[in-house]
Amino acid sequence: MAVDYTLPKSELPSPIRVSPFIRFCRWSLLIAGVFYGMKRQSTLAERERLHRIKLREQKIVWDEEQRILANRRTREQLLALAKEINVPIPDDFDKQYPPV
After folding, report:
1. Between the CA of residue 78 and those of 10, 42, 90, what are the distances in Å?
2. Which is it for the CA torsion 47, 52, 53, 54, positive or negative?
3. What parts of the sequence cross the membrane (predicted)?
4. Among 81, 82, 75, which Cα is nearest to 100's?
5. Which of 23, 63, 96, 99 is at a distance of 20 to 30 A from 80, taking alpha carbons?
6. Distance between CA atoms of 76 and 69, rounded to whole angstroms?
7. Structural contact between residues 97 and 78, judged by C-beta atoms closer than 8 angstroms
């Protein structure tokens, strides 16, 4: 008992001849779109390149700020810990952990 799963064949209408003017307009718009896309891509790529350069310069500043904050936090934690457990602060503490 086999089931036939084939779809009935439908006849397609014959293609319509497109006017040369319409074909010219389609191709012209396609080519214009490609050139616009290339120009837009180069503009956006330049803008992104400048943005990345700016971020790279800012990253140096941000990293330095993070380093200073980490050192300050470490110093404060060590001082708080020394006070909490009643340990005297060494004389060279300011050399090892300078106040920022």
Report:
1. 85, 53, 11
2. positive
3. none
4. 75
5. 63
6. 10
7. yes
Match 């941000």 to its residue by tokens.
62
Residue 45 and residue 32: Cα distance in Å, rounded? Answer: 20
Do you know the residue count of the chain? 100
Q: Where are the domains of the chain?
A: 20-96
User: What is the pLDDT at residue 49?
Assistant: 98
- Rounded Cα distance between 34 and 55, Å, is 31
Tokens matching residue 93: 């503490």
Two structure tokens written together for 98: 């300078």
